[in-house]
Amino acid sequence: MKKIKVFAPASIANLGCGFDIMGMALDEVGDVLEMTLDEEGSGISIANDTDVPLPQDAEDNVITPVIRKFFALTGHTGRVQVRILKKIYPGSGIGSSAASSAAAAFGINELFGAPLSEEDVVVCAMEGENLASGGYHADNAAPAVMGGITLIRGYEPLDIIKLPVPGNLYCPVIHPHLTVSTKEARSILPREIPMHTAITQWGNVGGLVAGLCTGNIELVGRAMRDAVAEPYRKHFIPGFDELRAKLLGAGALAMNISGSGPSVFALANRSDIAQRVGAIMERHFAQQGILSETYVVKVSNKGARLIA
Ligand code: HSE
Q1: Is the Cβ atom of 186 under 6 angstroms away from ligand 1?
Q2: pTM exceeds 0.90 for this model
Q3: Binning pLDDT at 50, 70 and 90, where does residue 98 land?
Q4: Ligand 1 within 6 A of 139 CB?
């Protein structure tokens, strides 16, 4: 029997313009799993030791298809027991399903002596994302496994590029208690976009990558704009445009929906600005009677990891 404890971070997908292809890992916030392997047995069991409501049946938990994919890719077998010790609230928009999936994928790979590459660990984690939202996207799973800011250059074949993280990138994130499922937030998007929208979007993606590679945070902020999904999704978030105006007025470099929402994140190049922006976000939702949690964190270069 082998036992480990793993952590995988929360993450922000899309980064404005990078719909389904960009994401970044956050410091401190994330999921913790304890995983036990008995190589002689078979089967997967999952216990939830948190007060976050999760599916009772292991078949409905994102962890199960992740572990099965690992077995399918490696040919290994065994009995795996998972205890969920810490859990980001599902539906928060900061990569809750990806954090569990990444922790499970990283953990099972570690339990067997790390036969898979980091990229194949992401492939396993994507099985959890598929169960959660009906699509094989890696924009949360890649940063949750690898840390930092990741770009999915292509899905077929999977080509993940880790981008440099400027040192002074602060990220206030607010999770307003509104219900927006990723499935619903995807279903309202048009299947096709006009050419001028595509031109705006790929100009911004290029600008964002250039800004990160050169450490030009003003350019990062200017490019972190979404012409594709935000016009449809912002209506889920009360006072979205007004909130952005307030945050930019307080010195934030950008504000966007985190993944498919309802969380919203901003960017700042100084800790004091990030704290101020976080407080304004909190007040914005409180004034509308909406409960929320705020995190003011740095972007983290560390992804899934062993903690015991
Ligand atoms: N990129 C996804 C979306 C969310 O915006 O629907 C998280 O993977």
Answers
A1: yes
A2: yes
A3: very high
A4: yes
